[in-house]
Design a protein that fits this description.
There is one protein chain. By secondary structure, the chain is of the alpha+beta class. Helix 1 (14-28) crosses helix 4 (70-85), helix 2 crosses helix 4 (70-85) and helix 3 runs antiparallel to helix 4 (70-85). Strands 1, 2, 4, 6, 7 and 8 form a six-stranded antiparallel β-sheet that branches. It has a four-stranded mixed β-sheet with strand order 11-10-9-12, with helices on one face. It folds into three domains: 14-84, no CATH class; 92-255, no CATH class; 282-380, no CATH class. It contains nine helices and 14 strands.
Length: 396
């Protein structure tokens, strides 16, 4: 889940102004004591807003700070995300800390990447694996009975907070979760995409949630070892869930941080999958393709869009979006553009053009697909030629 905000900004509401003031105070703080003061104030205000589904105030404050104060924006969204993916619940005369976690799977396939409901047996198997390989002793867990794509997950922070609460209550009660997600929307088929296994983990107040926190006990393992154990244990189960797919597992961890890490790790996979798809569909070699890389964003470059054409044509046949994050800019080494070019070259594409103009993010009015810049700088819908050998409609 990207922290960039490329859509139009809502007007700053009165409640939003209050959030902005608190976030600016936190950004200007120079001590741990003052940090705690501002964080406690933000926690109190935001908890009420999330409970009341006052997303308009939250969105307006984030939109304003994104344009005016990067440090305050990052501080505010850290608190918002933390409150959306965690909460404290009183249960059986104990106080429990609940954390929403995800186990992202980066998958690629020339076929449709599976998603949808999990059977009761699959839920039990994955839940048992989490308890055995990832979670600290004494925790309770409830796993959502669904293999999600990002489009299926709540977009509003208040809805994510509610999902955390529903799964947390299920973990503590031992009953099946009632998620209230309603009918999930259809999603476009993509060559490379993320699938999410979601769960809530409850630990007694101030106790460990993960095995890597249990230093000095027999349960303690480092994150790298935990990931290795998870991959080994989960691979067979995930093969059954994702037939015909190549996939990579990320370490199960807190929802928002894992969503961003999954997004990052999907970017080069999507580029490689696009080149493989196009060489097959167009019966061409990678050197017969051209990649056009252009920056898109309202106030700054929030993402790069990579348009693919045949080497001697300006017609955009496919496109890949490469989102950027708060810590990525042209001052980084290597720069995002260098990373994209390296990835394209590793995939065999040698004709790469960078456009210096920053484009406004545009989307298809009919299907919502992002539009891409051709070599002349015209923003277009990607369209495969009629003669292409396309088994599945992957354009999005």
């Amino acid at each position: 889940m990207s922290r960039t905000r490329t859509r139009s900004k809502p007007r700053l509401t009165q409640d939003g102004k209050h959030l902005v003031s608190l976030a600016l105070g936190l950004a200007a703080s120079n001590s741990l004591v003052e940090d705690r003061y501002w964080e406690n104030a933000l926690n109190a205000v935001l908890s009420k807003m999330l409970g009341a589904h006052n997303d308009a105030a939250i969105d307006s404050a984030l939109g304003y700070l994104y344009d005016t104060n990067t440090r305050a924006f990052e501080g505010l969204i850290d608190v918002i995300e933390g409150l959306s993916e965690s909460l404290r619940i009183e249960h059986e005369d104990d106080s429990w800390d609940v954390l929403l976690i995800s186990a992202p799977i980066i998958a690629s396939s020339k076929y449709a990447i599976p998603l949808g409901p999990l059977t009761a047996e699959q839920v039990t198997q994955l839940q048992d694996l989490l308890e055995a390989e990832i979670l600290a002793s004494g925790t309770r867990v409830a796993l959502a009975p669904h293999l999600f794509t990002l489009e299926h997950l709540p977009k509003r922070f208040s809805a994510m907070h509610e999902l955390t609460q529903r799964l947390g209550l299920a973990a503590l009660s031992g009953q099946a979760p009632k998620l209230g997600l309603g009918k999930l929307p259809e999603t476009p088929q993509m060559l490379a995409d993320i699938r999410f296994v979601l769960a809530a983990v409850a630990a007694k107040r101030n106790a460990a949630h993960f095995s890597w926190q249990q230093i000095g006990t027999s349960r303690h393992v480092g994150r790298a070892q935990a990931l290795e154990q998870w991959n080994t244990a989960a691979s067979a189960k995930l093969l059954a869930l994702l037939p015909g797919c190549q996939f990579e597992c990320l370490l199960p961890d807190a929802y928002f941080a894992n969503s961003r890490e999954a997004d990052r790790r999907t970017r080069p996979v999507a580029v490689r999958a696009a080149v493989n798809f196009l060489t097959s569909a167009l019966k061409a070699t990678p050197t017969e393709l051209r990649a056009v890389v252009a920056g898109f964003g309202e106030q700054r470059v929030d993402e790069y869009r990579v348009a693919f054409t045949q080497r001697d044509s300006n017609d955009v046949v496919y496109g890949v979006v490469w989102p950027l994050y708060g810590d990525e800019d042209e001052g980084a080494v290597p720069s995002p553009l260098d990373e994209i070019e390296t990835c394209l070259q590793a995939s065999g594409v040698t004709k790469i053009e960078r456009l210096s103009e920053r484009f406004q993010p545009q989307f298809c009015a009919d299907c919502g697909a992002p539009l891409f810049a051709d070599p002349a700088g015209e923003v277009l819908h990607a369209e495969m030629p009629e003669e292409a050998d396309v088994e599945q409609n992957y354009l999005h």
